[in-house]
Amino acid sequence: MKKFKNLYLSAAIVLLGVGAAFATSNTKSASDTVPGYLMESGQCIEKRSNCSTTGTEFCTWTDANNQSHNLSGTNCILPLYEPSAR
């Protein structure tokens, strides 16, 4: 009986560890995206919700005149990038 308790306890600990690893992985990927802002009339206006703080291609927004604008973070200064494909 004692062997079964040890086996179940070990299995439960391993399963909890695996579940925690998946939960951490999902949290990281969800928090990788940040809102992208554009300076309009002296104010930072949010234009997209899925930009990234790292990358190589700028996060952009296209206006009604089909002009593309690079977006930045909440301070409207630091550039943002397209999120990487996962």
Order of helices and strands: HEEEE
Structural class from helices and strands? alpha+beta
- How many helical elements? 1
Distance between the termini: 46 Å
- As a whole number of angstroms, the C-alpha radius of gyration is 22 Å
Low-pLDDT segments, ≥5 res: none
The percent of residues in helical segments reads 25-40%
Quick one: how many beta strands? 4
Described by the principal axes of the CA atoms, the overall outline is elongated
Largest sheet: 2 strands, antiparallel
Share in β-strands: 25-35%
Q: Kindly report the average pLDDT value.
A: 77
Structure keywords:
two-stranded antiparallel ribbon, two-stranded antiparallel sheet, 1 helix, 4 strands, 86 residues, single chain, 35% helix, alpha+beta
Task: Describe, in plain words, how this protein is organized in 3D.
This protein has 86 residues and is α+β, with helices and mostly antiparallel strands. 35% of the residues lie in helices and 28% in strands. The chain contains one helix and four strands, in the order αββββ. It has one helix spanning 2-31, and strands at residues 33-40, 43-52, 60-62, 68-70. A two-stranded antiparallel sheet has the order 1-2. A two-stranded antiparallel ribbon has the order 3-4. A hairpin with a 5-residue loop joins β3 and β4. The chain starts with a helix and ends in a 16-residue tail after the last strand. The mean pLDDT is 77.
Secondary structure layout plus pairing:
Layout: H1 2-31, E1 33-40, E2 43-52, E3 60-62, E4 68-70
Antiparallel strand pairs: 1-2, 3-4
